[in-house]
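[job 4471] stage=fold_predict status=RUNNING
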Amino acid sequence: MSVSLQYGFLGVVYLIGIAGFAAVPAHRRREAHAVFLFQNMLAWFLGLIAVEAGWLIYPVRELAKSSSTSFLFEYLCYPVVAVYYNFFYPEKGSARAKLGWTALFAFGITIPELLIEAYTDLVRYTGWKWYWTTISVGLTLAVSRLFFVWFFGPHRVSVSGKR
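[job 4471] inference complete, writing structure tokens
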């Protein structure tokens, strides 16, 4: 895939990420901002560790002179995914439903990343394996859920918008 097509792909993903964040209902924006920023901090920190350790490289990336990580993934896409993970989390579901929800999101990020790694120069695994993505995404989403419950308390707004 040519570099220009890869940057075009990044542009489309930016539009999807921005649209996903813009689609948050007005009455949920405070929650969305808190989760977004929290997940942004986690992804940035852990992403830097993975890149600096040499486990991942991003040959084609935006802001190449500023950061060796993927700005799009660490700062936009993954935090937006975490917002929706928390908004629709099966709070009253069984432990199996909660684990399934987390696995759905973890694999929902891992599978596209594997395709991107195989067919583009946007990410390269050097010492990384697909299961590390699945595990790290699952764990950081679970941590974002703990943050969400701690920050907003037991009387937070539900999916329907009612208290």
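[job 4471] summary: DSSP finds five helices and two strands in the chain.
[job 4471] exit 0
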